Amino acid sequence: MSFRHSIALHLLAVIFGFYFLVAVIVTVVQLYKEYENTKESFYQEIQLLPTTFGQGISDSVWTYNQELLLSILRGVYNSPIVVGIEVKSLDHKMDYKIGSILDEHNQPVYFDTQGNPGKSIETGLGADALFGYTFPITYRGPAFKTPQPLGEVTIYSNERLVFERVKYGFFLILINSVIKTLALWFIIFYFIKRYLGKPLNEFTSKIKQQDINQPHPITLDIPWSDSNEILLLKDSYNQMIDSVNEYQAALKNLNKQLDDKVKERTHELFAAKEAAEMLAYTDMLTGVKTRRAFFELAELQLKNGIRQQTVTSIIMIDIDHFKSINDIFGHATGDLVLQTFAKILKNSCRANDVIGRLGGEEFAILLPQTGLEGALHLAEKIRQSVAGEKITQNQQTIHFTASFGVTETNPGQYTLEEILGQADQALYTAKDQGRNRVTHYNAQAQADKPGSSNS
Ligand SMILES: Nc1nc2c(ncn2[C@@H]2O[C@H](COP(=O)(O)OP(=O)(O)OP(=O)(O)O)[C@@H](O)[C@H]2O)c(=O)[nH]1
């Protein structure tokens, strides 16, 4: 915290703004009063002069003794508080003016010690601000019952002399004010800084050091008090930090719960997705691929065949007289036959062969990298396995057979629909020739058939 921005300096500026104003007003009033008192005492001192010189002046005017009068007037003039003296006699024969006096227009004029007009020797502030005391002069001789008026005498002083006397007092008052002000300034500054600035600085730096993710309650080193505004502020701050920590812990907990829930939901969604895919791609009764999955995978394998330039075969299979099995033994037994049949297919095929149930009791197997000869061999093997299988149900033994149509395609030679069509035709031939047999597609034979475009 820079000194320029410190709270102590700002408080001082405010306090001393007012204090300085009051101090200046008080000092000015004090100086004015001092000046007035000094002027008053000057005036009193001047008023005492007639008791010393009054009788001598009266006597010299009464006797027209000009020399005596002048010497007395010079004596008065030499007094340190006198700047001028004027004697006005009633017959004007003994009129005398020495030093600075005020004329009939109240303007300051100057006369030398001989009473001749001259240039003022009074200079400086207040030199022309004359003030005077006038007293009458009378003669009290034994021949007169009452004092005989002779005229009047005015003794002048000026403000410069008052100021000269008061100067030292002014200086003391000013020094006094400045020292008091500075002392107060340093005392207040020191204590504000120590009792306000330092704890606030400590508070600020401890807040700055806080770890924003894990703030801790703080302590302040204030040995001179156990309860003040700063400590109350610190307590409020600590309460706030406690609340923040509690909220943060609750939030973390909530986040964790949310995280766990999201993981759980994601897992469930993943499982649901897998189940849905399973439903869409796997036939629930037999465990082989659905019609849709078979078509997708078969397309992929045909493309692989083109890429690898290998031959691909298809076997189309249909269980013989399956309707009769259903009719005689019931639908459940029919299902069992389908499952048994699918198991034989799965056991007979390689991992990358694609087995699909295209509908009802109709199945197809796509054999990658397998030519017609291999496909016929596999079909025959399956046919024999099926024919050799027996299912015992309700003390009845069930035998069943299947018919097979086989075809092959070179890379890119036929589309999936075309080879499925060919295999289907071969299957139709197998059925036609008495069932429980394997027949391969013969393009020429198909062309020679009555009704065919080639026949
Ligand atoms: N149990 C059972 N029967 C099914 C299922 N899907 C289709 N079927 C039945 O399979 C029978 C198929 O009969 P058809 O198409 O006449 O053929 P088939 O009786 O096998 O006669 P051929 O194919 O000429 O030997 C129908 O009766 C269908 O109801 C199934 O999932 N389970």
Short structural summary:
Helices cover 56% and strands 17% of the residues. It has 455 residues and is α+β, with helices and mostly antiparallel strands. The protein has three domains: 169 residues, Beta-Lactamase (2-Layer Sandwich); 65 residues; 158 residues, Alpha-Beta Plaits.
Explain the overall architecture.
With 455 residues, the protein is of the alpha+beta class. The chain has three domains: 3-171, Beta-Lactamase (2-Layer Sandwich); 210-274; 291-448, Alpha-Beta Plaits. 56% of the residues lie in helices and 17% in strands. The protein has helices at residues 7-62, 66-77, 159-208, 229-281, 291-308, 322-329, 331-348, 372-388, 416-432, 443-448; strands spanning 84-89, 96-102, 108-111, 130-139, 148-158, 312-319, 354-359, 362-367, 390-393, 396-399, 402-409, 438-440. Helix 1 runs antiparallel to helix 2 (66-77), helix 6 packs across helix 7 and helix 7 (331-348) packs across helix 8. The model has no long low-confidence stretch (mean pLDDT 89).
